[in-house]
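Discussion board: Methods & Data

I've been asked by a reviewer to show the raw model output for two of the constructs in my manuscript, not just the figures. I'm not sure how much to include, so I'm pasting the format here to get opinions. Each protein appears as its amino acid sequence followed by a line of discrete structure tokens. Is this the kind of thing reviewers expect to see in a supplement, or should I convert it first? Here is construct A:
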Amino acid sequence: MAGSYSDRDGHIWMDGKMINWRDANVHILTHAMHYASSVFEGERAYNGKIFKSREHSERLKRSAQMVDFEIPWTVDEIEAAKVEVLAASGLKDAYVRAIAWRGAGEDMGVASAKNPVRLAIAAWEWGAYYGDAKMKGAKLDISKWKRPSPETIPSHAKAAGLYMICTMSKHAAEAKGCSDAMMLDHRGYVAEATGANIFFVKDGEVHTPDPDCFLNGITRQTVVGMLKEKQIKVHERHIMPEELESFEQCWLTGTAAEVTPVGQIGDYNFDVGAITRDIAESYEKLVRV
């Protein structure tokens, strides 16, 4: 599927009913457009089944509560809507996007309690997020922007506003010929990529940043569990950027990224080694069960 995301054939579930893709529009005074009052989920379907679908729906509801609104659909209703969308798409392997937001209403300032909360779900074909990096390893820049303190934002919500600096960081990285950027947190510790969590390997053990000020991804949690099942020691801890020199392997995890090897971060190089290849292959098998 190519071309603009606004001009495609198909259907999108919106506020309880299926509508034509091109008719899935909102008013220019939608609160979320002006004040980022929206939350979303990215999910993948494999062989017609969304991987960990319910966990995503539950997180969508929690994210909305963290940014002070309530989605007026239950988890079961959201699950049913996703099944309907996937069936309408005719796709077995698909990316599924659910988004909830404060719409246009009586309020048009920072406050928006009088405005309706809306929900939409769409599905489309989406291949490897980093293209051929899944084979040879992605190249990452190091962003100048840092993940902020949880005292300043609801850092564990998957909220649209938290991705502004991610977009800026990824654009800067792409301008340098990189696939993505690694971000530090407000204290200077390694945090994550712009839309994926990060893992490192040293001496047969895995090290990954403690997600105390950024999203603890569902794929991240899945991979940590897989590593532990394989009897590979996992250190969830604060990681200083100068430690990158001592790590041998690196990969990213996320619904879109799946498990993507990293070959370079700034001036640091990594091998696409045995542990990286094994966890990528194991994840691919798991999601297609």
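Construct B, same format:
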Amino acid sequence: MKKKKSDFRPNSLWTLPSAGLLLFLTVIPLIMLLVFSFMNRNLFAGQPWPGWTLKNITRMFHSAPYWKLMAKSLGIASIVTLICIAAAYPASWAIAKIVKPKNRSMFMMIVILPFFTSQLLLIYSMMNLIKTGGVLLTAMDAIGIHGMTTWLYTNKATVLILVYEYLPYMILCLYSSLEGIGDNIIQASLILGASKTKTFTNIVFPMSLPGLLSGILLVFVPVAGSFMEPGLVGGAGGSMVGSMIDTQYSTSLNMGYGAALSCALLIILSVIMALVRYFAARAERAIGGEPS
């Protein structure tokens, strides 16, 4: 009987650094988060070794403020994601199909320019634009539009700044998909009598769906867990679920309860993204595309 050859290849050793990073930066922290949610003391506050409890879980389920903030966070994340999609499709299409190829890299550089600076500086720069006496309201007064009030310290300011921060992610994801759509496919659709709207719904949208799903993932998930932006520009009533989780770690020093809240948020976001992917695949099949 012939001995079966091993499937091991030396080239597979190159995957070890990536696998190690995935293990130590993703898998292990998630396991630690789950373990911490059953602890009854803070492990890093100089207290005795914690015991195990279900109180963090039961407290979370009975916490009306948490679920209220969860609903608010998911609503704001949905609004920000929809605004980013509406703004990113035309911008991505213009860069991918209208701008000359030699100039596309310049426009993409402009899109990613905000990534070259601190996120905190981006927030403060937007605050200076929309505050009372800021650049925007001063310019409105100068052109004769008076009576405009600042959005600062409202939920509108939170949405505005989150769109400002995460719109480049959506543009990058959609651009990568739209650029791969052949011009001959679009021209063939138009020549055969399809309107621009039908061409978009039957050709462009299905073929750009992988980029759209990636963009939704990169925008919806971090926005739902945001805590710095609501704290700086949302005002007294601007807290989101991320703010409550941050308070448990930084102020209350209740690591177990904070971990339980974080696990619940991760599970809810995972379910939502799975549903988005499922319905997107069904929509793609319904309009004649191959599910991505």
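Answer (T.O., handling editor elsewhere):
This is acceptable in a supplement if you add a one-line summary per construct. For B, something like: The chain has one domain: 35-286.
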